[in-house]
Amino acid sequence: MSCEKGDGDPMEDPLFILESGEVYRNPTEVKMSQIVMPCHANHCGELSVGQLLKWMDSTACLSAERHAGSPCITASVDDIHFEHTIGVGQVVNIKAKVNRAFTSSMEVGITVNCEDLFSSCQWNVCNAFATFVARRTEEGKVQLKQVIPRTQTEQMEYSIAAERRRMRLTHAEIITDLLSSNTAQLGECQEYQGAVSAERTRVESVELVLPPHANHQVSTFGGQIMAWMENVATIAACRLCNAHPTLRTIDMFHFRGPSHIGDRLVLKAIVNNAFKHSMEVGVCAEAYQGAGALRHINSAFMTFEVLDKDRKPRTLPRIRPEPVDGKRRYQEAIARKKIRLDRKYIISCKQTEVPLSVPWDISNQMYLSYNNVSALKIMAARSNWMLSSEKNKVSLYTLEENQILCFKVETHVTVPAEQAFHLLSDLRRRHEWDRHYQKCDVIIQADEDDTIYRVATPCVSKGGKGQDFILLASRRKPCDSRDPYLIALRSVTLPTHPATEDYTRGEVLCAGFSIWEESNAVTKISYYNQATPGVLPYISNDIAGLSSSFYGTFHSCNKYLEENRDSLAVLPPSDL
């Protein structure tokens, strides 16, 4: 664990000086600092994750209510990866702010860091995104006011929040489909000598919801439910390994319904599967009152490790599943592990750490699409673009960071934004205006918004070979009037389309279009391109030659759009 010394108080007011000279602080930001006492810790002297989840949920709820001006409830929490444990005597600093508000729900970003008061060291513990819903008032359903981003970071989070919301809304359905397809390929469960019966790890516990467990709306506090779930999951993990486990990840989960004071909350947990260094525990929370029927409140999957004295993951005993449901859970845990690794590999790492070409398959389609669009939104949100040159109302901007050169070409056309979006999103027609696209074929129509193309470009030197690219094109319509149309491009690899001798295989890290409607007839089009020199077909060390190439290409683009402004929209991708 690296120690990063702060420049001062880690929770001091994050004031920003805007270009106007105005001193600014996010109005939805809420902070909580807690010193970890023995009553908050487990027998290893580490902060209970359940207690941390309660603090995180409480801080996020206060931020949501500050923005909504009305009571809010936790609807869902995205994946949480815990990077470090927190010891007794250390300080937990939690910061929450609303990234974006939709009709009646909002995304709240949560950051947690730990501070050692004696060494002044600080380190990140986890980041999380929670969705809160504003409760109805006496006047009816709440209509949330818009979040207005004021800084580059806020603009980036605001923009990506729409993509995270899109992924949340389809997450359950997609995961079900992936589990169904992946488990069908796994065959029979493996038998291991000395394996532990899964039934030995089963835990069931009941909690009576009392007033101290409720929030100010007399509903069971979401953080309290999460803490109880973490408790039974930890017991199940302990029964497998006969040691104290460390919680590493909690998969995305949704609250299915409310719980109230007087409910009996039944919590069940079992180890679904154990791998070499980790185990998955499934947890379920159900509620009832009196002789009433059980109501499903929540389900979650938690991944634990057991650390040795050197803080390295220990080898775990294997699980022997029980017939029928036990075998289903065992196989689904294997499929979820693959999905989890794909998600962490593609989404969790920094953009500069993502390899140029990630292998595409149906199990990682959702995460590659998310990464593709998010990378473009992050590039577009940067505020330090430098105007390199301008000619005939086409502007070229450059930006260099971490030895990566980025370009932005900006122009205006008198074509409706939606029509420009349809015309530009069909790469099969790009050769009509871009001479660098010699040929473009559809390889896979993944879904309505994602298509994989093979693009061939001409040779740029005498006697040389042309380049070809395998590109994932992800297109997005605006979530609301504050969003642009987007067409994001990045390289992927397909085993069915390896590199050939006739072409040099090229790579695209991030490229695409941002299309803004400025009026009914005027549209601003920004094209972004991020690459190391020599990677994209028209990257050149000669900036003057590069400018000339971009100007020629985008004058042709403008002409193409103007000529087709009244034509029928291209066929939707589903009909390709």
From TrEMBL:
Name of the top EC class for this enzyme: hydrolase
Keyword Lipid metabolism in record: yes
Residue stretches making up the HotDog ACOT-type domain: 26-138, 199-310
PROSITE patterns linked: HOTDOG_ACOT (PS51770), START (PS50848)
Entries under InterPro entries matching the protein: Cytosol_ACT (IPR040170), HOTDOG_ACOT (IPR033120), HotDog_dom_sf (IPR029069), START-like_dom_sf (IPR023393), START_lipid-bd_dom (IPR002913), Thioestr_dom (IPR006683)
Keywords, in A-Z order: Cytoplasm, Fatty acid metabolism, Hydrolase, Lipid metabolism, Mitochondrion, Phosphoprotein, Repeat, Serine esterase, Transit peptide
Enzyme Commission number(s): 3.1.2.2
Domain START residues, every copy: 385-555
GO cellular component: cytosol; mitochondrial matrix
Record field: catalytic activity: hexadecanoyl-CoA + H2O = hexadecanoate + CoA + H(+); butanoyl-CoA + H2O = butanoate + CoA + H(+); dodecanoyl-CoA + H2O = dodecanoate + CoA + H(+); tetradecanoyl-CoA + H2O = tetradecanoate + CoA + H(+)
Predominant location category: cytoplasm
Function: Has an acyl-CoA thioesterase activity with a preference for the long chain fatty acyl-CoA thioesters hexadecanoyl-CoA/palmitoyl-CoA and tetradecanoyl-CoA/myristoyl-CoA which are the main substrates in the mitochondrial beta-oxidation pathway.
Protein name: Acyl-coenzyme A thioesterase 11
Gene name linked to the record: LOC120053357
